[in-house]
């Protein structure tokens, strides 16, 4: 069987999670004729302006690079048309793609690698939301980009398990590698003319809104397992936030970036926020113990709990604050 003609691909992406897919395309049989990324932004502590991770790859490989404020502006569309792409690939680009961009390639569409099992977790934060909701698996969906966010027909899904204490960054890294393979396979199918699209069941769709800072505040009245999931969803940054209250009423903010949950012994029902120091540290929650594994003081380094407690004396009468009212949360997925 003769090999299909390689496709001319324009790539739309911005953050680190998009880099493995771009690098796989550069190394593969198809031609990456252009890259579109977000404009340079202030990054890091000094907020120095720098190119996005995807832009850096394009610059390194000398691939034509566009960094528009709005991808639908006439100058950008004209530059894309001059690249004569057969198809576009989108991974975490971060801008709305108007119709004249979506339909510009000769194949008439763009494909997107979305980090969820669609139609679940459409939106900006599918990875963190899957962890937050206690899912045991997630994956990558290869979909066609349409006007409604993450609602286009799906051609393929790849699944992976979510590990019990895996955080958003760690899961993102694994999903990025999965996306690279899934996109490469999908482009080969497009080139052969064998790709098949299936409409999503919109009745099963859920929204994965971006997590905000207040989502990191731990309400110790919640179940211990839900708190552990919240910690991993917001880690490594900012991490789950708890307030230690000393015997004199002094308060210290602590961050928990990895944790487990443990049931109470039969008949036990300590007040939420009560610490237990046996074999490390446990914090009473709504229905069991929240067991911090990694702790951090403001300005300090994240440390395994045993190392942290060697340098931080937990007063005998200390307790962890329980909120008077539950903090506002982003809309659930």
Q: How does this structure look, described?
A:
The protein has 333 residues and is of the alpha+beta class. Helix content is 24%, strand content 25%. It has helices spanning 19-27, 53-61, 74-83, 99-102, 126-132, 168-192, 224-233, 305-311, and strands at 8-13, 31-36, 41-43, 48-50, 65-66, 87-91, 110-114, 137-144, 154-161, 240-245, 251-263, 275-276, 282-284, 288-296, 303-304, 319-320. It has a seven-stranded mixed beta sheet with strand order 5-2-1-6-7-8-9, with helices on both faces. Strands 10, 11, 12, 13, 14, 15 and 16 form a seven-stranded antiparallel beta sheet that branches. A two-stranded antiparallel sheet has the order 3-4. Strand 3 (41-43) and strand 4 (48-50) form a beta hairpin. Helix 1 packs parallel to helix 6 and helix 5 (126-132) packs antiparallel against helix 7 (224-233). The chain is elongated, with a radius of gyration of 23 Å. It starts with 7 loop residues before the first strand and ends in a 13-residue tail after the last strand.
